Amino acid sequence: MNSSTAGRQIPVVVLAGFLGSGKTTLLNHLLRRRAGNRVAVIVNDFGAVEIDAMTVAGQVGSTVSLGNGCLCCAVDAAELDGYLDRLTRPAARIDIIVIEASGLAEPQELVRMILAGDNPRTVYGGLVEVVDAAEFDATRERHPETDRHLAIADLVVLNKTDRVTPAEHERVLGVIAELGPDAAVVSASYGRIDPGLLFDPATRPAEEEKVRQLSFEDLRTDEEDEGPAEDDGHAHHPHTGYESLSFDEPAAMDPRRLMAFLDSRPEGLYRVKGFVDFGAADPDNRYAVHAVGRFLRFYPEPWPRGTERRTQLVLIGSGIDHDALEKELRVCAVTGPDGDTTDEAAMWGVLRYVRPEPAAEEAAGPL
Ligand SMILES: Nc1nc2c(ncn2[C@@H]2O[C@H](COP(=O)(O)OP(=O)(O)OP(=O)(O)O)[C@@H](O)[C@H]2O)c(=O)[nH]1
C-alpha cells in the first residue's frame, strides 16, 4: 500500500485482560515477531506489576511506564495524549503503539480516551482482550464485568488453550461467541497469535534498515520464548493463524452497497484497509478505509496524480470465508446498468464515518 493519510497514522492497540491472563506474554511474543516494525509500548504498571515494564523494556524502542495506579483512572486524557504525542513524533519512527492495560482497567475508558484524542497521527487499532481459557468460568464468576469486556472487544485472544481439553476449549469458544458476536476470536497458547492480525510488515526503506546498527532487539531470538518450544503443535493449530484476502476492482463502488457490506461485516473479519473509488459520487477523492473490529473510518484524500482509479482492499481475519467475502464485495461494484454513483445522498452513509472533530466524536458516545 502506498503512502496515504491512513497509512501515515499509527495504530494504537489496547491490550486488556484480567490479571494473569497472559497479556505480557502475548506482548513479548508480538515484540519478537514484529516483522521489522518499531513497536512502542505503554505499560500501565499497577502495584507490584512494575516487573511488567522490565519484561518488555529490553525489547522495545520506546517504553513509557505510566506511574502507579490504573491507567484509566490515574491518567487523564491530556496525559495520555502527551505520551501519544511523544511517541508519534516522526523522529521516533514508531509503527504501532500498544497500551497494555492493567488487569483491573476498564478497557472501554481507554478506548474512549484514544478515540477522543486529537492527535491526527494516531488511529484506533482495536481492543484486544486476552482471556485465560483454563480460568474462564472462575474469572467470570469473580469479575462479572468480564462479559462486558468480551462484548466490546474487537479481538478476543483465548489464551492458555494448552491447559484445557479440546472439549472444554470448544465449550469456552461457544460461550465467547454468545457474549461478543462481533469480535474475531483467536485461540492461542503463550499468546502466540499471528502478529499480522495487528500490524503489517514494516515498509521502511531498505537503505535505512541497512545502515541501522544491530540492536539488542535484533539479537534476541525466538528460542527465548517463555513457553514450550513452538513446534509443540500449538503454533500450527488452525485457530492461531490469520487469513487475508486482497480485493482489487477497477469499477467504482456503490457507496450504499459498500456500506451495507461494511455494516454487516462477518464474524472473524478483524481488519479492513485500503482505498475505495466511489466514482461519480466523489470524483475528486479516493477514500482510505480503516476498519478494526467494529471501528470504521474513511479518510478522503485527493487522488494522487497518475494513480489508476480502482478499489484495492485487504481484509484480514480468522476463519473468514474468502469466496463469500469476495462475492459480496464484487456485488458492491457498479458494473451493471443499474449501478449508480451519481446520487449524492448515497454518500451520506460513508460520510458518517469520515473522522469528525475530536470534540464531536467524544460527544457521539459509543464507538
Ligand atoms: N500454561 C500456560 N501458561 C501461560 C500461557 N500464557 C501465559 N502463561 C503464564 O501465565 C502467567 C501470567 O502471564 P502474564 O503474561 O504475566 O499475564 P498478564 O496478563 O500480563 O498478567 P498481569 O500483568 O498480572 O495482568 C505467566 O507465568 C505466564 O508464563 C499459556 O498460554 N499457557
UniProtKB/TrEMBL annotation:
UniProt keyword annotation of Repeat present: no
Q: Where is the CobW C-terminal domain?
A: 242-333
Q: Where is this region: Disordered?
A: 212-247
The GO cellular component terms are: cytoplasm
Keyword flag Cell cycle: no
Q: List the InterPro entries.
A: CobW-likC_sf, CobW-like_C, CobW/HypB/UreG_nucleotide-bd, P-loop_NTPase, Zinc-reg_GTPase_activator
Against Pfam families, the record matches this protein to: cobW (PF02492), CobW_C (PF07683)
Gene3D superfamilies, per the entry: CobW-like, C-terminal domain, P-loop containing nucleotide triphosphate hydrolases
Acidic residues bias locations: 220-230
**Reactions the enzyme catalyzes:** GTP + H2O = GDP + phosphate + H(+)
Task: Give GO terms: molecular function aspect only.
Answer: hydrolase activity; nucleotide binding
Per UniProt, which keywords does this protein have?
A: Chaperone, Hydrolase, Nucleotide-binding
Which family, according to the similarity comment?
A: Belongs to the SIMIBI class G3E GTPase family. ZNG1 subfamily.
Query: Which protein are we looking at?
Result: Cobalamin biosynthesis protein CobW
Q: What is the lineage of its organism?
A: Bacteria, Bacillati, Actinomycetota, Actinomycetes, Kitasatosporales
